[in-house]
Design brief:
CATH superfamily of the largest domain: P-loop containing nucleotide triphosphate hydrolases
Largest sheet: 6 strands, mixed
Shape: globular
CATH architecture of the largest domain: 3-Layer(aba) Sandwich
Bound molecules: adenosine-5'-diphosphate, magnesium ion
Order of helices and strands: EEEHEEHEHHHEHEHEEHHHH
Number of helices: 11
Number of domains: 3
Structural class: alpha/beta
Helix content: 25-40%
Strand order of the largest sheet: 6-7-8-3-9-10
CATH topology of the largest domain: Rossmann fold
Distance between the termini: 49 Å
Radius of gyration: 21 Å
């Protein structure tokens, strides 16, 4: 069933001089098992949008359906069940670590959702191993860890509740390139191998193209467009008006086509893919 936003609007501080319409009539659908990237500049409404997914914010207009949950402005939700299904990792989630040990931190969710201490511990250990955290850090304080490890602990804490939808707000912000890559590969694995629906907020267009199969582009509280990678090609003029850059592998192919007056298949995820696509055009004498 997935996720359906129907005409959702949200305004902060309505009817005050500070009023700000952060979401303006959003209608989108996310199919189960997909990997969706939400892209857009700072202030475009991305974080506001994802806070609706676990009902941290309720839509002031419209509604959201997530499987058999209906989120609207009435407070009739089974919140706990919803939050077990939809795990949201907010920006800088390591700031929300608070237990004395890594293990206890990861156990917090499962206990909250009703597991016994013993079962929660088992799940926490499994999740830590799944996410690539060494066993010997489980009894350390989370605050002794590196930034990348702390981020992983925070994500493990969400994953331990076994959500079927995982939402991540700029999860790689502030990590070094190696930490970024590891985390993105892990998210890809959760999607491809465990079938978890992923919604990833990012402003890294190259990561979006590389990892996601659906893209939602937000601009000033609206969904500017929504679709597969083709949107970067078919809509690139619209995209450039928003000051978002076209993912580099695609802009590279655009320039290649223009310069050499050839047509290249642009179904690519990375620069390596793009190079593969231009190779046939590089035969001696052809250009
Ligand atoms: N708590 C808040 N109170 C008032 N305005 C807010 C609040 N949170 C966000 N906004 C405003 O709503 C708009 C959308 O913000 P946000 O959803 O955080 O965008 P993004 O995540 O894309 O950067 C911005 O103009 C922002 O300043
Ligand atoms: Mg944000």
């Amino acid at each position: 069933m997935g996720i359906k936003f129907k005409n959702v609007s949200y305004t902060y501080q309505a009817n005050t001089p500070f009023e700000k319409k952060a979401l303006n009539d959003i209608t989108i659908e996310v199919t189960p098992g997909t990997f969706t990237a939400i892209i857009g500049h700072t202030g475009s409404g991305k974080s506001t949008l994802i806070q609706h997914l676990n009902a941290l914010l309720l839509p002031q207009e419209g509604n959201i359906e997530i499987d058999d949950f209906n989120i609207d402005n009435r407070k009739t939700l089974r919140l706990k069940q919803l939050r077990k299904k939809v795990g949201v990792v907010f920006q800088f989630p390591e700031q929300q670590l608070f237990e004395e040990t890594v293990l206890k931190d990861i156990m917090f969710g499962p206990i909250n959702f009703g597991l016994s201490k013993k079962d929660a511990m088992e799940v926490a250990e499994e999740t830590a191993s799944l996410i690539g955290l060494d066993k010997d850090i489980l009894n350390k304080s989370p605050f002794e860890l590196s930034g990348g490890q702390m981020r992983k602990v925070a994500i493990a804490g969400i994953l331990a509740s076994k959500p079927s939808i995982l939402v991540l707000d700029e999860p790689t912000a502030g990590l070094d390139p190696r930490g970024k890559k590891q985390l993105m590969e892990l998210i890809r694995k959760l999607n491809k191998e465990d079938g978890i629906t992923i919604i990833l907020v990012t402003h890294n267009m190259e990561d979006a193209l590389k990892y996601a199969d659906k893209f939602i582009v937000m601009h000033e509280g609206k969904v500017l467009f929504n679709g597969g990678y083709e949107i970067f090609i078919s809509e690139h003029e619209l995209l450039s008006k928003t000051n978002l850059s076209i993912p580099f592998p695609l802009s590279f192919l655009n320039r290649f086509e223009a310069k050499f007056n050839v047509e290249v298949n642009k179904n690519v995820r990375s620069l390596e893919d793009a190079i593969e696509k231009i190779t046939p055009h590089l035969r001696v004498g052809e250009l």
